[in-house]
Fold this protein.
Amino acid sequence: MNDVSLLESNDLMDSMFFENIRNKYYSRLDRNNIVYFDFAGSSIHNEELLDNYINYMNNNIIGNPHSNNVAAQNSESILENVRYKLKKFFNATNFEVVFTANTSNAIKLIGENLNYELFNNFYILKDNHNSMHGLRLHAKKNKINFTYFDQTSNIPNDDNKKLICFPYQSNATGAMYADSYYKRNENEILLVDMAAAVSHQQIDLDSLNYDFAVFSVNKLLGFPTGLGCLFINKVSMKYLQKKYFSGGSAAKVYVENDLYKLHDDYRQFEDGTVNFAVQRYVKDGLLFLEEIGMNRIHSYINSLQKSLYNKLISVKHNNSLNLIKINEYQEGSGIINFDVIDYKGKKWDCSVVDQILSNNNICIRSGFHCNSYHIEKCDPTLKDGSLRISLSFINVVRDIDYLIESLKMFLNTGANYGS
């Protein structure tokens, strides 16, 4: 299918290697003169894989996997193959894979179906996506104590059953938490949002031993949207108590006597028909990334990030003030959170900078990134957000050079529309 594995992997060849990947599979970026730096928002699809997927769909019949006919069997075969490949990709042999609508839906599913009688406390990291913060509403509703914590907080190592919620990597700042929080005893139940990390980190779920882990497929592959994954550690199924049924989540539903029987495996958490029509692309996309190698991808992105960081901090106004203020920088995260500062030291409004760069066909992210904690620390009123660049193996050096040249239009000017 692909020839990405034919090149030797070494530092000298990686720039050319990923340039070839860009030209072959993502050439529309250059045809449309688009520089894309919003990969924490979503990756973009592989053109050859999408063509292959469309060709497959145009030459095969796939049907609702809840049926037993040949079209349904085609779908079921692909679905189970993708579950297997997801377990292999994340080394998650001890986990069940549940398909959801997205990361937020997977977190919501946990919040709605925890057996709250088993829990005493929720601990939610402050630097989380908004979807995690929504769990505090479930805690309040079920009269569970919830506590916000940060990197300096100590979570009690005691006998109280507690749900600890954190991201593998912050989507706003790139801060890494995977090595900071881990299961110390059987009373700590870990729910981890992997969405910001899956595109460039080699994640080993069996080794990390999380209870629940979630991500959206578009963060990893760009296509499809509207498909998420919930990994449930097999030993942690006991912490869930399904409170609703619909469609394929129930094995049997009786009308006359008001009884129903849920499936006793992962299927009980897939209400209705999952998005089976797109799974062929997911299968091929995972294989594509495996052929490149996630460690190779991580190393390349880390090099790009260092280069970009050094170039950003080297741009100065005539009075020697830095044009760029780096708000957060975590090496290896692929994310740089920053602001543009005028020659008087005044911050440009992030939405203005975003619009000006967008006029130059540069795609970054502005605002609060569905994670306002890093802004709230400095500005409790949340008057303005920040700017975020998030990198991928699809980026090349010329993207960085074009961004730097475009940012220079702010040199020696006043933030006339700034905050």
About this structure: The radius of gyration is 23 Å. Residues 97 and 231 are 5 Å apart (CA to CA). DSSP finds 14 helices and 15 strands in the chain.
